[in-house]
């Protein structure tokens, strides 16, 4: 917000060491106010080219005027009097200039005809000759070429947004630094990298790497003490550098065998614009009238329109065509701030005009801000207005309206589809509303969901329930429940009470779940966690028998094989898949005694003979010979043995022994 003292900016040495270079506005590590200088004109005749003392100018590349001399104005890098040494230094030495040029030491020394390559003014008039290192500028160095573009382009060096935001010198310097680095990335992209055979590869990674580094700085500022203003300044700098440049290959080099241009550059350029727009939207949404006044928002919107026009010129007419105008969402969130009348009505739940619905990118940003501010009521109204009903349920919980969640889901069962309410169940538990969270999950897993009763909608809630209830069992309970052999008396009692509870609530489950779940009967010898696990198992078998197998596997996967046995123990099972899994996976772990009473009610139609034989063998080992015989003799009439099943052929009966039959 306003009133924050300026944050010290990094030193020139630090910036130089970081590989980013020293931007405009730096003087030996001390921020200075750069005064843009007037760019001289470039007439077509040599006599009209003005240099110091009326001398004609030699262009940086030589040209029609021939080699430079002391009688012609020339860039310092082409000075015929004082040799130029290309160095990586971005700063000059204070106090060395025309007044003591006789020293002849370093690029700071210049003759009367030397021009600043960056500013295109005489060296004696350049304000950044030594303080900003312009004396080292060369047309061979991409950095200085990028800095020259920045200096000579008012749209980059004179951003009205920085002034409107009231940015301090440090923020302005950082914005300029990222702008110059963005320009530098494009220069390196266009210059290319020389490879084998002299082929020049033009990699857009130069631009992408700079943009990625800028985005990291944006995230750091947005969550740091500098706040939205410093973030907006960085965004303005890097975005300006992106939109004033073109990703398109140089027409003169596009078809050359010596130049290799990547075919996916447009997609990378478009992705950068999209990501920058998201940061614009998020940063603007984080602003308030205290830190960014309304007049600054108006300036920002106008600035974004200018940037949008430049970006649109680049993305229009491409294949595939872009359906979205670059930075349009940033403009919309800028024009409709938090105090906009329509936004106030939406946050108060009083707006019904759907024309005010915002784009998904804007919705995500606004809800992010509301969540950080813990404005749960406003977040609920905003999400409801935009049709984010499932998400609004979580905001209802945080707004102390958890009692309204389950009735709302029962009235609008479509909210349960696609596992939308799973996060709501977790949120209820996290807020201490465990009973409401479990009841909501039970309704979504076992209740009447209207038209869509598919397993795809129920399984996520069943998984959440199993994971939660098994997670509440203490280690001692888990050990008792997973003991090999017949279940303990406490487990038998819990199964009986859970079955009785399910028999009472199943016919009117929706109504019953509106009331808190009943605790275990008084004097029970089992815990509430055990009772809850048994209730889930019996509800699954009773109300959604088609999901018995996945539910049993979920219990087993969570380390509670007893819960899987509880499903099998209900009796009357005829699912071949469930029985096959029980024989091959569960019985070896728990023993046949764990589900012995329920086996008497199983029917084996469709069960492979190998599975029946394995079950019969287990029953025989347990001394249940009659049940083993029933399992072996339960083959379907006309059933053929499956591949791999053991077939025992019996000899045919001979009823004509000794010439006839006798009693």
Please explain how this structure is put together.
There is one protein chain. 41% of the residues are buried. Mean pLDDT is 80; it is low at 1-66, 92-104 and 636-663. Helix 27 packs antiparallel against helix 28 (625-632). Helix content is 49%, strand content 2%. It is elongated. The chain is built from 28 helices and seven strands. By secondary structure, the protein is mostly helical. Strands 5-6-7 form a three-stranded mixed sheet.
N-to-C span: 112 Å
- For the biggest β-sheet, the strand order reads 5-6-7
Give the count of helical stretches. 28
Supply Rg. Answer: 39 Å
Structural class: mainly alpha
Average pLDDT value?
80
Query: What spatial form do the alpha-carbon principal axes imply?
Result: elongated
Strand content: under 5%
**Assembly state:** single chain
Low-pLDDT stretches are 1-66, 92-104, 636-663
Question: Percent range for helical residues?
Answer: 40-55%
Largest sheet report:
3 strands, mixed
Say how many strands there are.
7
